[in-house]
Amino acid sequence: MIHLTDAYLRAGVWLTGTAPTPSPTFGSYNGDEDLVTPTWVGFAVTFAIALATLLLILDMTRRVRRTRYRSEIREKLEAEAAAEAAAEKAGDVRDPDATRTGADPAANPTGDAQRE
Q1: Mean pLDDT, range 30-51, rounded to an integer
Q2: Would you put residue 65 in left (φ > 0), alpha (ψ -120 to 50) or beta?
Q3: Residue 35, CA distances (Å) to 24, 28, 29, 45, 73 in order
Q4: pTM above 0.70, yes or no
Q5: How confident is the model at residue 25 (pLDDT cuts 50, 70, 90)?
Q6: End-to-end CA distance of the chain
Q7: How far apart are CA 54 and CA 50, in angstroms?
């Protein structure tokens, strides 16, 4: 396949009879090419690309943080469910509200409030 492409290229050069040379472009600049600047259009395009990049980075950071928080919460819920299942299996069923408030049902088996 490469040989066929090379043959077409050589045939094209042979038919034209001249070596390909770059042609001058329309409205070419005749001054010092080192002094050409991109003007405000170049600045606007660069600024738009930088702004889009910044917004994409912020969005990605927000999504990664949300995913990490969701996985941490999921792990905590799974750990709580496993602890409850283990407690039920062992026959030690406690009131889940009592453990959240810090009350110890074993210290006060009647459930009455202690008064001082």
Answers
A1: 87
A2: alpha
A3: 19, 14, 11, 20, 59
A4: no
A5: low
A6: 98
A7: 6
